[in-house]
Design a protein that fits this description.
The protein is mainly α. It has helices at residues 18-28, 33-40, 44-58, 63-72, 79-82, 88-92, 98-122. The radius of gyration is 17 Å and the shape is elongated.
Length: 123
């Protein structure tokens, strides 16, 4: 009676500038904004400007989310970061980022539980 065809969402193209990719890649290696700035011979404010552009384009609110999303989209290389898919954050981020890591994991757990719940309700 009802035709339940899956609806395809339109593809969104995310374009980061070369400099945004460069900055995010360096941040993914654990460098601070100050260290990135010194390496690129720019100000810390410029680095943070590029990161703000990345956050906006990827619709994220912090470095961890940006690195994870950019890695999943293939915008930055993450093989050395993600390894076998477990313990990713511990390999990349220092202990001062532990709260961000824990908050990200909790959001992912909630999202996963939400998705499973929606799937069970659809059956």
């Amino acid at each position: 009676m009802f035709n339940h065809q899956p609806v395809e969402a339109p593809l969104t193209v995310i374009r980061l500038t070369n400099r945004e990719i460069e900055v995010l890649s360096m941040v993914s290696e654990g460098l601070t904004s100050q260290q990135v700035a010194e390496s690129l011979f720019v100000s810390t404010r410029t680095v943070n400007y590029h990161l703000a552009g990345v956050f906006s384009k990827l619709k994220v609110s912090n470095r961890i989310q940006a690195i994870v999303v950019a890695g999943r989209l293939g915008l930055i290389r993450t093989e050395q970061l993600f390894g076998n898919g477990r313990g990713t954050e511990e390999k990349v981020f220092t202990s001062d980022r532990r709260a961000d890591v824990d908050a990200y994991r909790e959001r992912m757990r909630m999202y996963s539980a939400e998705s499973q719940s929606k799937g069970e309700n659809a059956s």
